[in-house]
Structure formats: structure tokens, C-alpha cells
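Record 1 of the preview.
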Amino acid sequence: MKDKYYSKAIEEIENILETNIDNGLKHEDVIKARDKYGENALEEKAGKTIWKMILEQVSDFMIIILILAAVLSMIAGEFIDGAVILGIVVLNAVLGITQERKASDALAALKSMAAPKAKVIRKGILDLVDSKDLVPGDVVVLESGDYVPADLVLFESVNMKIDESALTGESVAVDKEVGQVEDEAPIGDRVNSAFMSTIVTYGRGKGIVVSTGMSTEIGKIATMLNETEDEKSPLQEKLASFGKLLGMICIGVCIIIFGLGLYRGEELLEVFMTAISLAVAAIPEGLPAVVTVVLAMGVTRMVSRHAIMKNISAVETLGSTTVICTDKTGTLTQNKMTVLKVYDGSEEWQVTGTGYSFDGEIASESDKDKSHIEKLLQTAVLCNDAKIKDEQVIGDPTEGALVVLAAKGGFDQASMNQSYPRLSEFPFDSVRKLMSTKHQIDESYYMFTKGAPDEILARSTKILIGNEVRDITDEDKKRILDKNKAYAEQALRVLGYTYKPVDSHSDLFHEENDLIFLGLTCMIDPPRQEAIEAVKLCKKAGIRVVMITGDHITTASAIAKQLGIIQTSDETLKGSKINDYNDEDFKEKVKSTSVFARVSPEHKVRIVETVKSNGDVAAMTGDGVNDAPALKRADIGIAMGITGTDVSKEAADMILTDDNFASIVDAVEEGRIIYSNIRKFVGFLLSCNIGEILIIFIAMLAGWPVPLVPIQLLWINLITDSFPAFALGLEKGEKDIMDKKPRDPSEPIVDKTMKIALAFQSIGLTVAVLTSYRLGFLMAGDVSSELQLTIARTFSFTTLIIGEMLRAFSAKSEYVSVFKMKIFDNKYLNYSVFGAIVLLLIVVYLPFLQPIFSTATLSLNQLGLAVGLGIVPLLFGEIAKKVK
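->
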């Protein structure tokens, strides 16, 4: 509400919008307003076309090089090579487009929340119209069960409560009042307003439409969703960057080789095919597919840990998370109000058990009998509209907690209501802050009242202590108010209880005075025990937890202290203060603030963006519509599967099936394992590619024919290497993976450690293969030069594959020696190595495949020598671990 109508008097709003609350707008006024403000609907930006998606997929630098290599191969007559390369390009494009087609449809879910019809007064007549036809100035009538069709300022509210959880994230319905509120009031404190897409849960009211469509609070969220662009994950950016570097190196080496060949006067076609061989060797064709499949397998594993990944690349992002921005209600807490203590006016009673389970007890400090609080428990259960079914509350969560309290004290709600049915009631309203009901117990009639402690005390003239009723004294009131204040300072919700004998014909509207005080109860939505442990684990893992909530700062601080998120209140900030900071000052403030309370959707987005601008990788949790823009803006958005709205689920990258903070930490651990495994197979694949480049480059410099032809390189890159790479992606996590600090998000995937490993392993591979190649000529015997070359290439091919398979076992760890690990504990790696060796033998020894793969049959001695040289790369890899 940019004009801040909520802070204006109704008369002023009537003048501004040229309406009146009795008759509403005339037909001509509606047409005029619609021309000015437009339809009451949410707008959506156009999505990507399939052609744009295809263009984006094939514009990757590595893909362009592959397409060029395929075309040139076909021009040169090598149709099989060209077709295989093009097949790789198509496969990668299909995988990429499939993922993108599953992109967020958050705005569609948001639009589906809008009310289809609205009750409106126009020309003094109540009418039912399409919500999209509403305009500012319309007078709308609201009743229990209605969706609010636009943003309204209320001028009538009769016991009206509105569930604003979709907008604010807080589960307790808000009592609505008529009157002005201050200019800077956050959404949660605008008690005189009703917001589009929220639901009336109780009572009735009327209001003037002040904002429609994209100008509503929901509309602002839709605008933010439209403005939020999907960003690449850190892994995607690193692989893209590395691909460009690899491509540039490849082009440079190809030009050198081509120029060198022409300088020597070699045949153009042969030089041409050598350059293509090098291009194929330089690019890890299997890498995109392996990354996609390993991430997909990680997604499957995460389901068992209560996390569903919508965005496959977000799995890796989780592993680099440095800050988790989380909602409070239901994520860090149980979202189940629980009574902790009962105060009977002189002594405290402790209540055990949490949530809506009846398991638990009530015990006093002096071990008094429960008869001392019998009347209070009766009041709690009889003056109550909630029900508990299968440990779930139907109705108000606060009243649900009282049903549980009474059950723990031996008072079953169903039997109490049957024995002492409600004869009449005076419903709760926000002016009295009380609720009263009348019941017959034996031959007497009683009124039971509960409500705000200050109102209860102000109307009480007597007090029940033990089984004795006496006049209440100022000392009693001071003691009770002090206890109430102490509870409130601990962020506990406090209710007071009274009773009063009445006549059978008494009108409760005139009986809420001269009450007998019974006591207080204090309750809270308690923190999840597993969340406390998860916060500890986060700290150990170097991850900061930040609570962002729509709740009051006192409640948020108390819960945060219990969870170990903060130590002092200096680490907290009210949402109303956020706008006081400029961007630079706020960047510093965010570093030292771990609780943000009473925040708006815009605040959430600003907090997340500031966390990211500080160089952190931000995960953001949320369940309401208000969370959707921040979920999209975060590096990884996490929605709640149970309490989450469709909008938040569509905007998120990950959905928690149990709404539990501990599951986020489990998912972070899984993300770290996956990233660690990705490093293992990236190092494994790249060392082979670099080795292949060196093999061809050195052979060319030496004036030798190329030791490996394009089809052999493609076979190694796609078949032989890819399956062990998949298997490495399924390695179990290292035991100390959550004891390490998060990696630097800007750290390249090929860091100093991997560069050392790549250098040693690729040199080892080059030495082994070139040695094998030369020995192949020597051991070929007295055969034609063409067959000699084929045998030598078969030697190279065999040594390279065996060397890669042995190195796959070494790649199981970047630091632990192969001689100190459980080598065969990964059955998938065992299967893939065995399969690769079987395929090698098939390609070498089956006659009809030999012409395709440029192979020749090797004798047992020849095979033994070629296989033996495969140990050399393994030894070089182990030396690299010692150097690191």
C-alpha cells in the first residue's frame, strides 16, 4: 500500500478514492477506476521458447568445438566419428532442456490462490462479482471461509480473524480491528487491513479496497518473482569457465599441430584428422552426462533424508552453503503450542511433554494434589473451541494446547463436554480480550472465562488458593502481574483463568465482573530437539544459521537462544529498522546479526541478497507466499513440504518432506559428499584428457603417426572412463566431511591440489602410453607397416584403458593412499572396471570390430606387456598424493 492507507482515517480514504462505506461505488465510477488501475489480476512475464532453450544449449563453447569437429569429420569422410560426436551433442542438449522445462511455475501457483468471486456493495446493493473486476474504492463484505479478494482497509470487524500465514509465515490467525495504525507498521502489525489471498477463519467484516492486482502485497511478491532471474549454480559456472579454458587450449594446440604438419609438408587430410583427434581428446565428452547422472543419483539418495530436489544442480550448491537463512515456526520449532507451566496464584506447576500428544504430567513444586488446579483445568477444556484428533489440532493452536493440558491433568475433552455441555457463550473479541462459556455442573451453574492476564485481573475480586476462595489483595495482584511479566520476558504466551457461579438464566454479556481468579498458564511453540543438535553441527561445519521470522523479536530471541543461534540480544534486529541502513552499513550489520524479526517479503529478499554480496552461499527456507521471492533469490531455496504453499514449493530448489531444520543439515552433508565425489571424477576424467593431448602432441612433435585415432578416443572418453566416473560419484562420504569449513564458493573446481594431481597423473599416463606405443612397433614382428601401426595403436589403446581402470581405484580418495583404503568397497566401481576390461577385450579380439576401432589381435605376451605398463599411471597418482 504505497499510499499507506492503513495509517489514514476511513473518512480520508473515502475522499481519496471517491467512495462511501454505505453505498460503495456507482457503475460509472467502477469503469473509470478500472481504466485507471486495470484489472485486479497478477501479471506474468513470457517464458523461454523451446528454440531459445536449444540455442542456449548448443552455444556452450565446448559444444561448439564438438559440432565443428563433427562437421569437419564428415567432410573428411569419417562419417562414424562425426555421427558419434553429434550424438553426444544431442544427448547433452536433451538432458539440459529437460531440466529447464521443469523450471519454476511459481506465478501460476500464486495466481491460483486468488479468490474467484467477491461480495461487493455497489450503489447500496450487495452483489457477487468476479474478483478481477474489483477496483480501489469498492466496498467488500467478508465472512468466515472467504478468501480476501484484494487489499482492504477495514471499517467493520466483528470478532474477525484472518489467517495470514501465506503472507507472513506465522501460523496463528490475526485478530482484526478497526482504526489507524502507525506509518511504519510491518504487515504483521497492520491489524486494520486484510490482504489479497489470505483467508478469513472467524467472524465477519467490511472494508474498502485500497490496492488491486500488482499493487497488492501479493502483487509485490509477484513482481519480485518476475524480476528474479534464474542463476547458474557454482558448479555450472566453474564447469562452463573450465570448458572455455579447455576449449581455448584445444584450439591453440590444434592450430600449432596443423601448422607444424603443413610446415613439414605432410598430407593435408592426415594433418586435418590429427587436429580433429586432438580436439576430441581435449574435450571430456562424458563429463556433462556424468555430472547430470551423479547429481540425479544424489537427488534419489536425498529422498531418504527427507529432501526432494527440484533443481538438480542445487545438490552441489548445498555442499558449499555457508549461511542458512531459516524461518522459525515449524522449521526450528515444532509448530505445536505447548503449555510449560501453570501458576495457581501462589505456586508453579511444571508440565511435561510437548506437542499435541496427551503423554505428560503436571506436578507442583511442593508435590501438591491436582485438586488445587482442578477448576483451572476445567476452565481450560470447557472454555475452548479446539479439538485434538490424531495428535493434530483442529482450530486455534493455543486452545489446542489447553485441551492437551487438561488431558494431562485427567480431564478428557469429549467426556467433559458430554457431562457439562455448553449452555451459552460470550465469544472472544479483540476489545475485551476474553472468552466466556456457561455450564451446569451438578446442580450449579458456572461461567468459565479465559483471556489476557491484565483483563482477567482487572475483573477479578476474589482468588481461589488451594480449596479456599478469599478476596484478592493488591499484593496478590502484584505477585501475579510480576509472574506474568517474567513469563512474557521469556517470550511465553500467557493466559489467565477465572470462574464465577451464575444463575441458570444469566446473560454472560453482563457477567464478566466480580470474577474468581484461578491462575495463569504459559505456553510456547517449543524448539525441535533435533534442531538444537543440527545448529551445533552447523557451527562445527562452519555454517552460520540466521533466523528470519515474522514473529515478535522477544519470541524470536528467546527461541534463538534456546537453539544456540545467538548468545545475546545484540545479535537481533527488527524489520522496521532494516530500512534505516544503507547498503554498505547493512552488509556489515548482516555479518553480526543472526535474528531478524517482524520482517516483510522485501526485507527477506534484501537480507538474502546482502548475505550473498558478502561472498556467502545462502540457503533460504520458507513456507509462505511471502517467502517465494527470497527463495528464488537465494543460492538454494528450501520450501516446506507439509505446511508450505504451492507458491513457495514452485519457487524453491528443494522441498523438505518433514519440515525439519535437521533435514536441511542432512542435505548439506549429502551436498558436500556429492561435491567431493564430483571432484574425484572430474580429476579422473580430466587427467585422461590432458594425458591424451600430451600423447598426441608429443607424438606429432616427434614426427610419429598419431598413437590413438578419433574413434578410440571417443570410446575411452565416453565408454571406458564414464562408467568408473559414475561409480566414483557414488562413493560414501569421508567420515570428517562435516568437520571441515565450507569451501570458498569462488574456489575453482580445479584448484592447486587437483592441478598437482592432474600434472602427475597425465604425465604418468603419457609416459606409459608412449612407451607402450613404441614397444608395439618393436613387438609387431615382420608385418606390413600398416599392420605395425595398427598393433602399436592397439598397444596404446590397451595401456591407456588399463591405466585408467587402475587409477579409478586410486581416485576413490584425493588424500588417502590406495594401499590404505578399502579398495573394493564400492561395488559399482568394481562392476564398471570389470565391464570396461571385458569391452576392451571384445574390441581388440572380435574381428568384425577391429576395422572400426583400428585394433589388431595381440598375443598373450604383447597383451601382458601392454597391461603391465598400465600400473605406471597408478604409481604416479600415488606419488601426487604424497606431494600434496
